[in-house]
């Protein structure tokens, strides 16, 4: 799926994704059980899932069956695990999709087994967070699964990696330096205009120009997932130069004050989330200024920006 | 059939009532229902269809992807569909064929429109597109500045004489920074309309106001008022509840209790199946609550796929209990306007950012 002209764009760099996967393997030596829930942390299942399959992911993890159904269509052969199930789920749809549910209680295990699933992940009780199965319950479930021919593994045998593969993190602190951002969110400059000094910009006039200035309209707004609170707080980059978003982020656009310069051509790329190595603002920087973590920044991007693959697909050979 | 883990229930009956109330309020001005950004998360096609069934004859679409989808979904050309935000290099051929009204802010956009018209002009059934010429009255986003306005209008009038476009409407967005600023913007706009008419533009329709000013101020309504937020029952100005201005919230966000953990000392926390991956902002933790069995339980943490609530003392929750995050208040829950106020934004941002992975369920009017 492509647009003839760029509008709101999320470029997914599959080379960086492959490098992050290689880095993960080098650091952990673990199999790749990849959490691609919430549209692969906002990166887009359609682009990400085939790439991860090509990179040899041993399992793809999502929260719910609706998501599993989308992943199954993209990964017909892969092990898919779901982590969240309705209290009255009979697990027949999971069985039909060939999905292995992660179950959180013996009762849930029994419903899943009765529903015909052929594999389960048993969530272990840790004393905090969402409850899991106590040691005795784990034993019961494992014994029953063996009798029924259901493959059963516990959490400890199923370590899942998630946001880090995409170069973001649910950690509020520093980003993991070993993993690079996979996404570049950008949009073209759709309009420019000259204004005088001390002119208000965008709703509520929370920003005023300091001098005679060139303003640029960028077609990303909070409906795309740029927080409304990002106005006067986070930066975007234009041709390597950083500019703070001027005034409130509106639903469909934000403004940049480029200063007293000649207007750049329409269509000039404005990068909102990218890689610090290219001098671009990152999801981590945005997160810090907005009081959250970088995983929320990418995950809460809406479906509107077009996700498309960039970078050489290094997995094409392996997929034959 | 199992209960959905999370769903946004859209009450089209409430939408119908809101639209009817707003139409009466702004009359004799016309009401345009703005369904941009997937109708602020409510679903553009079902919302637009309901709006038409409720008597609406003007729909604001924002972009051509949305406008063309609405036309393809059966919204016929007796209903105005307006688009106004385009990437540079937009091809207007399909839009003109589909009789989409076109907001135009600059000579560059006008040229792209007239290029497409010229290519189509010989074809059977060609109808010159109706332009909504946009003036910047201070918001400084799109719209021609006062300095550029005469040239834009003059070029549009020339194209109209060539049979390529119609100079149908003039419009602007106002900043809503203050009543005085909006009054100044109104005056600049009326001056701009006078200039345009002197230059030969017909300007049959003038529109400036959106939800907030459109409801509060009679003088800004002119010929048409564009509304999004108020149609979905989200008040767009401070200090009022939806019911105080005659509106009913249209979206109710529902989930269910996944599990309860007893923490001792008669404290417990419960896990609810909606998280930031569903569009629930992390910063509602500590500020907003979830209603279960008619009682509000404060949100303490928001994870990607679930959130955690502190179970109110004296209440007992169980796995599978229905949980209401926000809605009309009928089940003891907060409204999305309250969620916006408490988390430092607009209810509009909250509903608009409810994720695509949350299924929408429609209650027919």
Automatic annotation (TrEMBL), chain A:
This is Alanine racemase. InterPro entries: Ala_racemase, Ala_racemase/Decarboxylase_C, Ala_racemase_C, Ala_racemase_N, PLP-binding_barrel. Keywords: Isomerase, Pyridoxal phosphate. Residues 182-310 form the Alanine racemase C-terminal domain. Pfam families: Ala_racemase_C, Ala_racemase_N. The keyword Isomerase applies. Its cofactor is pyridoxal 5'-phosphate. PANTHER family: ALANINE RACEMASE, ALANINE RACEMASE, CATABOLIC-RELATED.
UniProtKB/TrEMBL annotation, chain B:
The keyword Nucleus does not apply. Signal peptide: none annotated. InterPro entries: Ala_racemase, Ala_racemase/Decarboxylase_C, Ala_racemase_C, Ala_racemase_N, Ala_racemase_pyridoxalP-BS, PLP-binding_barrel. PROSITE patterns: ALANINE_RACEMASE. It holds the Pfam family Ala_racemase_N. It comes from the Bacteria. Keywords: Isomerase, Pyridoxal phosphate. The keyword Nucleotide-binding does not apply. Residues 250-363 form the Alanine racemase C-terminal domain. SUPFAM superfamilies: Alanine racemase C-terminal domain-like, PLP-binding barrel. Its cofactor is pyridoxal 5'-phosphate. This is Alanine racemase.
